[in-house]
């Protein structure tokens, strides 16, 4: 069985970043994995990253040994589904046992400091009472556990018995009040505390192994032949309680195909369930199981696992796009007891259309709906940079690129943003529709639906130039069929949109209003108070795009037909340039406001918290100042700072080297090394000066290291034939320079 993590790849995490809205979804999912309940729906357009966000949240919480997440790649036939859950659970319980054994073997005793009774001298009764409480934690039965655990239980039973003898011996002397016995008393207390911690881990280990044993038995039950759903299972609980004579016991090891631990068991119903019989003495009992009874067994054991071991078990069913909402609802109703009574937290991952309709029609048993949205234009700006796409220097290039990939994460990764050749006039119509009062008042999931429709409608207008009312209705019908959405509410909304479009009554709303209000640039602050002919910049910006559509008639109605006109890109850009000049702002200034609002500047809060794991980037070492500046621009909202240092080469000439420190979404510090060698342009003093000025402009802190021990480098060159580049990187790790230099970069600049 594979752990499905595609399309997310931890090997490529240097290139991966999340937007704030995506981080919020991850936090939401992490909380549900740990504390959730019932059935939860994750929905959104195909390609927005539903599975990726779920997998990342899963990766973060699996460090918690009390959480299990079972991924079902797609819903399969009921019997296979339950067996898949069972097998996945067996694998993950076995992993938990390995972690418990590790803690048991290498425990942390809080620095071995005695915090029990603060070294108070205890009398015989108190010491014996503590010992008895420890013995009570020891498992009484040793059936259905591994030989390794049996051995450890024997060891601690022996140790506890010896400790009882030590206590008795100490107090038999009747000199325990003598100060000379304080040391022995203290040592016994110390052993009690140590054994108590060990025995608690042994108890946990035992409980997990017993449940693993039960799961393995249940796996055999699931393999047993089902004769009829109407037949009643012949319970064997009474037979299990019977004691067999020693002569009739046949010990054998049951080895699971998915677990490496061998368990000792009697040759009883466990071994022979698969063949449909239970061996009791000389008689056999036919074991006719219904599928419902198997489901009940699994439901009960899941409930016990969570209640008695305090486990949180989560099941994620992906690719429900292939099912209709009625089929998904039927799936829930068929397995309602399993989903709701077992204590599981279940996640159903489905497309936008299914999610919206499911929310409207079948939400009776749903705990929460988690919407994964398309990228906003601001998020696209950051994502495209972090995916090594071009950072757009012009607003219209940015807008056209965004519309070409429809704000979709997957499209951003796999598609050429110029493939659809969006023109500025089409992108502005798209922006105009987003700005409409109709769109802005829609719930978030309905905004996603209508954004998809706007895109299709513009494509149609681009191809044919016009759209009459009849064709509009046909387009709506085709769209609803494509997205499998049938809803009276949606029908009414599409009718309202059609009425507004064909009556030229699509009232506008403010789309860019937060750009300057949430910005810290002096330029944007200035714009709040700047007006031209009595109109402030914020209102003027909204009016500009509205007028561009209405007054320039990019989108108009003529003879009951919706018509898309085109204006040349040059004309649109010149008009925008002239508009900005009225407020003493350039197009580059406007893009800087967009970039800052998008989070593409140093984030002080996040930078302070990024001081955990540290490693080199997966990418190669980069050469030159130009590469370094490009990287700073690309990751500017995740940059911690830059270190510049000057080692010597084999000829003892001074080199110029640098390390860019950035953090990622995985709690790691990524070190991106840069090298400037003799002959490279980056080695020239004027380029270094230019680089420092660039860093200051971008508010990136840089530190110059001038106290290097050059003998270290020369000695390393003599010992190795590696390139100087690799040797310098290795020295930085060996001498802990990466961590030491990071500490020199202040976190509060």
* Helix share, percent: 40-55%
Note poorly predicted spans: 1-6, 109-117, 225-287, 678-682
Strand content: 5-15%
- Calculate the mean pLDDT score and round it: 79
Structural class by SSE content? alpha/beta
- Supply Rg: 34 Å
Query: How many angstroms does the end-to-end distance come to?
Result: 49 Å
Total beta strands: 20
Q: What oligomeric state best describes the polypeptide chains here?
A: single chain
Q: What does the largest sheet look like? A: 6 strands, mixed
What overall form do the CA principal axes indicate? flat
Count of separate DSSP helical elements: 31
Q: What's the layout of helices and strands?
A:
Elements: H1 20-35, E1 38-44, H2 50-61, E2 67-72, H3 78-105, H4 124-137, H5 147-172, H6 182-223, H7 237-241, E3 251-255, E4 262-266, H8 269-272, E5 277-280, E6 283-286, H9 291-308, E7 312-317, H10 325-334, H11 336-341, E8 345-351, H12 352-361, E9 366-372, H13 377-386, H14 395-404, H15 409-414, H16 424-435, H17 437-440, H18 444-464, E10 466-468, H19 469-482, H20 488-502, H21 514-517, H22 522-528, E11 531-532, E12 535-536, H23 537-550, E13 555-558, E14 561-564, H24 569-581, H25 587-597, H26 604-609, E15 613-616, E16 622-623, H27 625-634, E17 639-645, E18 656-663, E19 668-676, H28 685-697, E20 702-705, H29 710-719, H30 724-734, H31 737-744
Parallel strand pairs: 1-8, 1-9, 2-7, 7-8, 15-19, 16-19, 17-20
Antiparallel strand pairs: 3-4, 5-6, 10-14, 11-12, 13-14, 17-18, 18-19
Helix pairs in contact: 1-2, 3-6, 4-5, 4-6, 5-6, 6-9, 14-16, 16-18, 16-23, 27-28, 29-30
